[in-house]
Amino acid sequence: MDFITGNKFKRSCHYSYDEQGFIKHGEPKDDEILRIFVKIDYVHSFFTQKQERPYILVTHNGDLPVDDNYLQYMSDPNLIKWYGQNIMTTHSKLSSIPIGLGNEIWPHGDEKVFNEVITQNLPKERLIYVNFDVNTNRRERNYCLSEMNKNGLEMGNKLPFKQYLEEVAKSYFVVSPNGNGVDCHKTWESLYLGAIPIVTKSINIDFYRDYPIIIIDDWSDFNPNYFNLELYNKIWGDFNITKLNIKNFIYE
Q1: What architecture does CATH give domain 107-249?
Q2: Which of 120, 167, 176, 210 has the fewest CB atoms within 10 Å distance of its CB?
């Protein structure tokens, strides 16, 4: 499995612009459009430099949303398409790409561990799993946890990363509130491990309505009686995690 990560999106582009500077990774082939990766924190700076040829923009590796503040750049005639993480506005040139897993430099981006857990093919034992770091987004996540507690669900214990992934794999549904950004690694960790994430609505998640994800309007709408094995089978259907191979998200 070639997992989705921000750095892989970066390496798929011909140029990148982030804290390491403006770096050339290669030239597009004759039939390719130039692809430029920009860390979202550097987008405003990037657009002070006029691009002289048509290009596709890819933004990732940051928590800032692509919101209305960036619509001013859509008028660039050479901007063909913008693929970004944490999409919070709409435009015909704009499309979402997943946050995916953590980058390989982080413990939660250890792909070897993910592959080990996937190949264990663990039996499912838990209907709904609640386990997240409240400190990542105190307001959203405390609210989510409060609603879970009202419905008889308790926060899981903090676990070593591999053991946490095993618990996800043994669950049918996983509660995935927003993290630092509207997208969350937990959503994609869950899908890779055969669990259906439960999230709240957003412009960004609308791009993934064809995936086995449960979207509710608000955590106050959460009803544990709605969830059962029949629902899991209906929503998961014939979904195959090979659809989450990063090559399926690398641009037109």
Answers
A1: 3-Layer(aba) Sandwich (3.40)
A2: 210
